[in-house]
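Thread title: Can someone regenerate the structure for this chain?

I was given the following input by a collaborator and told the matching structure tokens would be attached. They weren't. Posting the sequence so someone can regenerate them.
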Amino acid sequence: MNLWKPDRVYFEPSAMEYPMSKKIYDYCKTNNIPVLKTTSHSQVRDIPGETERAQFANARKTLVVGTKKSMKLEVCKPSAHYQFSLVTNCPGNCEYCYLYTTQGKKPYVRVYVNMDELFDTIDQYIEQRLPEVTSFEAASTGDPLGLEHITGALKETIEHFGTLEQGILRVVTKFSNVDSLLDAKHNGKTAFRFSINSDYVIRNFEHTTAQLQERLKAAKKIQDAGYELGFIIAPIILHEGWKDGYKKLIEMLHDHISAENNKTITFELIQHRFTSNAKEIILKRFPNTKLDMDESKRALKFGKYGRTKYVYPKEEAAEMKEYISNLITELYPNGKIQYFT
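Best answer:
Regenerated them for you:
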């Protein structure tokens, strides 16, 4: 796949003292990328484009280098105890992305360079839960692998977790540029989850991400390098021929990742959902989208803090869960389906 390359990079003043900033600055100079200054990410206002859609497209090619101010970690159920951010937003441009709800007005990509402060925070959270093992999700606010060729932050994080006795790192990705991570000293403390989907979903909705075969080849490399491996099938979307599409997906997965070894392959199944706010933003960004967001065909689900989202009706969700679970257990009898939501 083609690695993401920003059209412009902004540096916050607070970021300049950190080693990673020099690495990013050198990358910009090598690739003739304009380097700009901003007092903070919230002051990035001169994104080019005469229309909102044009500004959105240009923002997706804009990188802001800064420091993470708040070190309070949010709970990340059901996948981990806590989440932290190496990046906010993502080089991927998936039409259904839940980040449109929280980052709709700031769609540029941000990276954080104060890694030592982040690692200190992680260590403190682990200390608070001893003797229990504490797990952390690194991809809730963006896909760090998509920026690894620019930052090197993910490898640094993996090797930090490799030194920890009671901490586990979890990384989810739709990208395939894993070669720089294969020699990382992970010591079995990092679990990779590759997000996969039917051909219909990837082709229509997952723009500027790795193709399915690229992700599966990368997953095989990760498995061979000794990382724990799993797959997230998300979002599961009911479309014409969906059963055949997901059957081909699991068969293609099995062609790349054998079930014959003793390592357990995990699976997480997540049905498509959307909020009214996300729908409004998605339709502005992608007015010709094929994404079906007809509320009359969905059920209303209440989440944290009284927030509502639209999911599939119980009967359709149950059929989806049973069908895909059966496909997985048939080809991966030792596989573990961790949850369906």
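Residues 8-340 form a domain with the pyruvate-formate lyase- activating enzyme fold (CATH 3.80.30.30).
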